[in-house]
Amino acid sequence: MSLPFAIVPLIFGTESPVDPGLDLPAEQSPVFHRIAEDLLVGYAFDKPDMYEVVLHRHLADLGSADEVFALAVATLRERAAAELVVQGAGGRYRVILEGASRDLTASLVLTPDVFRSQMQFSGDPVIGLGSRIWMHLIDSADAEGIEGLRGLTAALHDEGDAKPINKWLYRLAADNTLARV
């Protein structure tokens, strides 16, 4: 399928971009997948100056929600191959996508194999997603570091300047599932 615009994944806290109390017809509601207790992935057409949210009505042309997920993750992998930067060492890392895809940095949580090979952890990685443009990881064996990451994640969220997601931390298990810490 050839699309005029790439489809990208965007991570949201459960305070989604659409007010849950808003009574939208099903075809006008955004397509979301739950990836953790209070994390959602939504999808957008990446237009030159904006994102246009993928709605259920778009599925008639795009296929199923699972197919949209696959398209979005493929786009993310392609962009990460060119823009991924991993900073840090010793179980404390910051991951960013430098360049035009910076808003997709937190979405990398959907593709842990892309960044995990560049890091070393004695336990599981614990991830902070305070905003869409930052992803911080710390070793689950580093209790002091986890508390520092908790404060940093909350501060990035509260600043609100960079598309806040939430204040929580998530453990990334070996099977790539996320659980709130």
Q: Could you estimate the helical fraction of the residues in percent?
A: 10-25%
Order of helices and strands: EEEEHHEEHEEHEE
Q: What's the average pLDDT?
A: 92
- DSSP helical segment count: 4
The share of residues in extended strands comes to 25-35%
- Strands ordered across the widest β-sheet: 5-6-8-7-9-10
Inertia-based shape: globular
Number of strands: 10
SSE class:
alpha+beta
Low-pLDDT residue spans: none
- N/C terminus separation: 40 Å
| Largest sheet entry | 6 strands, antiparallel
Radius of gyration: 16 Å
What does this structure look like?
With 181 residues, the chain is an alpha+beta fold. The chain contains four helices and ten strands, in the order ββββααββαββαββ. The chain has helices at residues 59-62, 65-83, 112-116, 143-159, and strands at 6-13, 32-36, 39-47, 50-53, 84-89, 92-97, 125-128, 135-139, 169-172, 178-180. Strands 5-6-8-7-9-10 form a six-stranded antiparallel beta sheet. The longest helix has 19 residues, at 65-83. The chain is globular. The termini are far apart.
Descriptive labels:
alpha+beta, 25% helix, 6-stranded antiparallel sheet, 4-stranded antiparallel sheet, 181 residues, 30% strand, globular, 4 helices
